[in-house]
UniProtKB/TrEMBL annotation:
GO terms for MF: protein-cysteine S-palmitoyltransferase activity
Record-linked PANTHER family: PALMITOYLTRANSFERASE ZDHHC23, ZINC FINGER DHHC DOMAIN CONTAINING PROTEIN
Catalysed reactions, as listed in the record: L-cysteinyl-[protein] + hexadecanoyl-CoA = S-hexadecanoyl-L-cysteinyl-[protein] + CoA
GO cellular component: endoplasmic reticulum; Golgi apparatus
Taxonomy of the source species: Eukaryota, Metazoa, Ecdysozoa, Arthropoda, Hexapoda
Compartments where found: Golgi apparatus, trans-Golgi network membrane
Protein name: Palmitoyltransferase
Gene label: GABPI
Family: Belongs to the DHHC palmitoyltransferase family.
EC number(s) per entry: 2.3.1.225
Acyltransferase is among the record's keywords: yes
Amino acid sequence: MYILNKLRNLSGWRSGTKQISIDATIPLISLPVLTLIAAQTIYLTIIVFVVTPIIIYHLHHNFLRFLPRSKFFLMWTITSVVMLMIIFELCVVPLLEIVVEENYVFMAGVVGGIFCGFKTKVKSDSAVQTDNLTHESEVVKASEEICLMCKKPPPARTYHCRTCQTCVAGREYHCRWLDCCIGSNNLRWYLGCLLCSSVAFIYGSNLTMTSVCHPFVLIGTILLPDDCSDVYHQLDLAVCLVSGIYSLLGGLVVLGYLIYHVYLIFLRTTAQERRISSSKNGCSGLLSSYFGNEM
């Protein structure tokens, strides 16, 4: 007990040791384990990539959504980025199949995504968003309705977030992967995060898979992976391949959200407003209702 008390005093936190919830530690353990399992055979790779989203969905539906501000998805994002960077720099780069400039481009995308993601969380303070919009008298007009949760009259195009427990101006949805609401005050940073992340994920995936697989030339100097059947004979190469596939799938999902938000900007609307309009159409709005509430 004396040693534990000394560790609490040396931890640097004023309140002593900082407790980490169980749901936040799951990604720290499960992601590396799943990667090693998927790297054993091609069949296990397929099984892991098919079963994992199903498990995460049931975990969220039956457990995580009842926890206030669960850090599971945020820790999954952080663990994924750190793990992919470590594999790329320690396993892919030493293969000497990519040039220094390509690594610089990849790292620029990673750093840009992390910076924009950090700014997205910093700018997600709904009070700042509301204050900023309140001063724009030409855009915002006082609403006659009162938020039943906040007991305050919100500005126009302001919606309540049940997760953040406050009203958010220009609300798109609550992004669980960044653990913050996306609104008018941080939408630009969020779009920057999506852009940089999609470039880093997809470009890093291409560099990884063309380094461990037999590549072919598509156009000019553009390489794409061709034959990857030999990588499972060596564990480190198989881990690189699994990380490349994971990075590609993540990049495509992020790119899809980027295209979706560009489309919403073109329509001059938000995901929240589309969810509300779609929900009035009955069954056709169920999918939009789910993704409009949180990502």
